Amino acid sequence: MGEEMITLLADGREERIAGPIVPHGEPVLGWERKPHGWCRGDACVPAFRAAAAETGEGVDLVAFAGLLGRQAVADPDEGLIAVGEPADLPPGRAPEFEALTALRGTRVAVVFWASWCGCRYDLPAWEALHRELGGHGFSVLSVSLDRDPEAAREWLAEVTHPAVIDTDGRIAELYNVINVPTVVWVDAEGRIARPQDTMTATDTFRSMNGLSCERAAAALRRWVIDGDAGTTSRELRAPTGEERRARLHARLATWLFRAGRTAAAERHLARAAALAPHDLAIRRGLMPLNGVDPFGERYFALREELEAAGIAIYRPLPDWQGDEEPAAGATAPS
Question: Is 315's pLDDT higher than 70?
Answer without folding.
Answer: no
